[in-house]
Design a protein that fits this description.
heterodimer; A: about 650 residues; alpha+beta; six-stranded antiparallel beta sheet; four-stranded antiparallel beta sheet; 18 helices; B: about 180 residues; alpha/beta; Glutaredoxin; five-stranded mixed beta sheet; globular
Chain lengths: ~650, ~180
């Protein structure tokens, strides 16, 4: 009965979402239904939260009369995996997607209560229509509330052991929060286009939402990479798998959008381009959903294939993206902005940033979809694209990006006095020397990739550090956020360079008591024991290094699905990770063992976390609160019948319409 | 900037969407491509993994039923299906042959040491040229060959327990008892 209540709540949410879509857009015109739109946003959240809670409960109490629970859970599963199994497969994870969409809609209705009616109504209306499409898809093709009646199984089929992990508990919610968060920027762009207010004020309204969504996506991707590193058992951290690319493409577009929004806010330039990026970031999220959920590309993440679902998502994608781009084509201003900049300026740097990120995005998109396009053109001939393709193009692009990024804090709007650049040049020379020397001294060999990565990373750190010192008394949170994010990029860059070039590995056949040396560390196979987990049986090995570090790699067998999993033993460290994975037992009682030494691999994820915190820190800048106050007074004037011009950024004339 | 130029993005998107539609409807991605099923496995002349100087050809496959699995160390799904393939080979006694696809042979040998080697032997296709002939779309893919070297079943994507139960096992049963 409770399950049916949940089902009903989601059906009600479908109606509410449609109502929100209509009421929002109408309130943009008449202004009186504004509070009704906000109420509907709250209702939608409440109903979807109810539906989701019901499904979580069904998992928690192991209600196997629900088909989705029976397929993805098991009585032996610990309670925290039973709860996280709710989003372990297609149906539940999409319910989570719609719930997160409702959370963002509700947050916009609260946080933007001071926006002009026109924008407020259209943003909420657009988000309502989007979520109407999502909930309709959920109910029509992938309801998680279907019952298995009669014939309730006594036992569930269990959650895929790959997903029985802390990473799965947090990775999808964070990733979806990022994906869906771009719907806010998307809706703001639609609202601004439709109401003809594509201006600096619009950019300023969009920025905090974009930053937060981007920060979530950054952490989500980093977590996914970290999970792959320790769970797949062979120490790789990025595979250019279609589904990884699906999460990475919105990130690239979102990163370009963040920077483009800065130019639109401060200088009123790039307006149409910014709107296009806002549409693109969310469109790529939807494309990602299509790739993952239609099974059109084969991947480790792919959900069960169902042609009906794929077509539905494709139709949703075509409507949302095609519609948005048509609005863009009809409403984007054709007059280019008046903002001028010459020579070396911050505008130019941000333009280069956007160009590089968009080229990188096109490159990844091409590599991901090429097999599909090739097949469509040749009528069935198949091909595939591997990691070497992506690395060949992507790595040089990011190095060029890093060069321009290093100059970010010293560049000024409009024109940069060349004298300022002198210091950056000196720091570049210093970074170059250190980049050549450090990997050679610490790593013991000259590696071009590591040298380039360290030199670029240090250059970015030096320039940002020096500039921050110079502005130590006047730094705003926006500035600190930028600095933190840029230094985070440098940290990731150095981590990637060091890990890629200096990782060492050895494969050995070892019995208990044997020792192997790798990179100056001796690993002794000290013991092997059999342990029993809640739903698996494992052989656990104990390795002790000569430095006294203990590592416990495991080989786990999950009897319900008859699956064998390799659980790596990792000694994590700031400077290096020691990583041991067990292979298979050999007939003579010894084991195939792979030992890896991965220097600075943690820096990759540390840098990503710094980027995300930087994005959030920038949102806390007090100027966004001032903006709210200004918008309120403007709305009051408007409501009183006065005609207020759309506000330009402080200190600049309002941009051309 | 003229209004017409603003239509470029939507035009590009429509091209992309039609490719997605074609790519999606052309076939069920996990289904048999009709071009290959019931056709002879293409001939080849490629090195054998871990046996320097030794080469294999179609003649080495004919005469016995084979499960030919395209895999690579860069492919996480291959690792995910590895145990299941091993179990099938062990329980049914069918000969499992690997095609190591677009990979580093040294890494491949190490991978097999680590994760176990259920393959009778592995063919090395470093360039992926043979993969093109086979119509390989991405690793992993698995072909079921009868004793005459005719492809009887093809799986794009991982072989898991469900695929075994619902597709591969019936396909093997359809070949009749082993000769």
């Amino acid at each position: 009965m409770i399950v049916e209540i949940g089902h009903f709540a989601v059906v009600a949410a479908l109606v509410v979402a449609l109502a929100l879509g209509v009421v929002g857009h109408v309130s943009a015109v008449n202004g009186t239904w504004r509070s009704l739109a906000a109420t509907l946003a709250s209702c939608q959240l409440l109903l979807l939260a109810c539906g989701f809670a019901v499904l979580v409960r069904a998992f928690f109490v192991s209600d196997f009369s629900v088909a989705y629970v029976a397929e993805n859970s098991n009585i032996l599963l610990p309670w925290y995996y039973r709860v996280s199994a709710t989003w372990g497969a297609h149906e539940g994870s999409f319910l989570l997607w719609t719930l997160i969409m409702a959370v963002w809609t509700w947050a916009v209705s609260l946080g933007c209560s001071r926006l002009p009616d026109e924008i407020f109504g259209r943003v909420l209306g657009t988000m309502g229509l989007l979520n109407f499409g999502f909930v309709l898809f959920l109910l029509a093709t992938s309801s998680p509330f279907e019952r298995l009646l009669p014939g309730v199984p006594a036992e569930g089929a269990d959650l895929n052991p790959l997903l029985q992990d802390f990473g799965l508990i947090v990775h999808p919610p964070l990733l979806y929060t990022g994906y869906v968060g771009f719907a806010v920027a998307f809706s703001f762009a639609i609202a601004a286009l439709v109401s003809g207010r594509l201006d600096a004020a619009w950019a300023r309204w969009s920025r905090p939402w974009t930053n937060v969504a981007w920060a979530f996506l950054t952490v989500g991707i980093a977590l996914g990479s970290w999970w792959a590193y320790y769970e797949l058992g062979w120490g790789g951290w990025w595979f250019w798998d279609p589904v990884e690319n699906a999460s990475f493409m919105p990130w690239l577009a979102g990163t370009a959008l963040l920077h483009s929004l800065a130019v639109t806010e401060k200088r009123g330039a790039f307006k149409s381009w910014t709107a296009l990026l806002a549409i693109a970031a969310f469109s790529l999220s939807l494309l990602g959903a299509f790739i993952v959920r239609s099974g059109v590309l084969t991947s480790v993440h792919a959900f069960a294939v169902d042609p009906e679902r794929g077509l539905f998502v494709l139709a949703l994608l075509a409507l949302a993206v095609g519609g948005a781009l048509t609005v863009y084509a009809l409403r984007a201003p054709t007059i280019t902005s008046r903002a001028r900049y010459g020579g070396f300026s911050r505008e130019l740097l941000l333009l280069v940033n956007n160009a590089i990120l968009v080229v990188a995005l096109a490159f990844v998109l091409h590599g991901t979809l090429y097999p599909l396009a090739h097949e469509a053109i040749t009528g069935g001939e198949k091909t595939s694209v591997g990691a070497p393709y992506f690395n060949r193009g992507f790595v040089p692009l990011m190095c060029v990006l890093a060069c321009f990024l290093a100059l970010a804090p010293v560049a000024r709007w409009k024109r940069t006095p060349l004298a300022i650049l002198g210091n950056a040049g000196l720091m570049c020379a210093a970074a170059l020397c250190l980049g050549l020397a450090l990997p050679l001294v610490l790593g013991g060999a000259f590696k071009l990739g590591a040298a380039v990565a360290v030199a670029l990373g240090l250059w970015i750190m030096f320039v940002h550090g020096a500039d921050m010192w110079r502005r130590r008394d006047s730094a705003t949170r926006g500035y600190l956020g930028m600095t933190l994010a840029h230094v985070g990029f440098a940290v990731s860059l150095i981590g990637i360079g060091a890990t890629s070039e200096f990782s060492r590995e050895v494969d050995a056949r070892m019995a208990v008591g044997d020792s192997v040396s790798l990179n100056g560390v001796t690993y002794r196979f000290a013991a092997l024991r059999r342990i029993e987990g809640p739903n698996y049986i494992a052989e656990q090995a104990e390795f002790i290094t000569d430095g006294g570090v203990h590592l416990y790699p495991e080989k786990r067998r999950y009897p319900v699905r008859e699956q064998v999993m390799t659980e790596a033993g990792i000694a994590a460290g700031f400077v290096r990770d020691l990583y041991i994975a067990l292979g298979s037992p050999l007939p003579d009682g010894s084991w195939g063992v792979r030992i890896q030494d991965k220097p600075m691999v943690r820096w990759i994820w540390l840098g990503a976390l710094m980027m995300a915190f930087g994005g959030v820190l920038a949102v806390m800048d007090p100027r966004y609160r001032r903006l709210n106050a200004r918008a309120r007074s403007r709305r009051e004037r408007q409501n009183a019948g006065g005609l207020a011009a759309a506000g330009g950024a402080r200190g600049y004339p309002p941009p051309a319409k | 900037m003229s209004r017409a130029r603003l239509f470029i993005p939507v035009a590009l998107f429509m091209v992309l969407a039609s490719f997605l539609y074609l790519g999606f409807t052309l076939r069920d991605p996990h289904d048999l491509p009709s071009a290959l099923i019931h056709k002879p496995f293409p001939d080849f002349d490629l090195p054998v993994l871990g046996k320097p100087g030794e080469r294999a050809s179609l003649a080495d496959l004919v005469g016995e039923r084979r499960l030919v699995n395209v895999w690579a160390t860069w492919c996480p799904t291959c690792l995910a299906e590895h145990a299941e393939l091993g179990r099938i080979a062990e329980e049914t006694g069918i000969s499992l042959v690997g095609i190591n696809y677009k990979d580093d042979p040294h890494a491949a040998s190490r991978w097999l040491t680590r994760h176990g080697d259920p393959y009778d032997f592995n063919i090395v296709d470093v360039t992926g040229d043979f993969g093109v002939e086979l119509g390989v779309y991405g690793a992993p893919e698995t072909f079921l060959l009868d004793a005459d070297g005719i492809i009887r079943y093809k799986r794009v994507g991982d072989v898991n327990e469900g695929i075994w139960r619902e597709e591969l096992q019936p396909a093997m049963a359809a070949l009749g008892p082993p000769p």
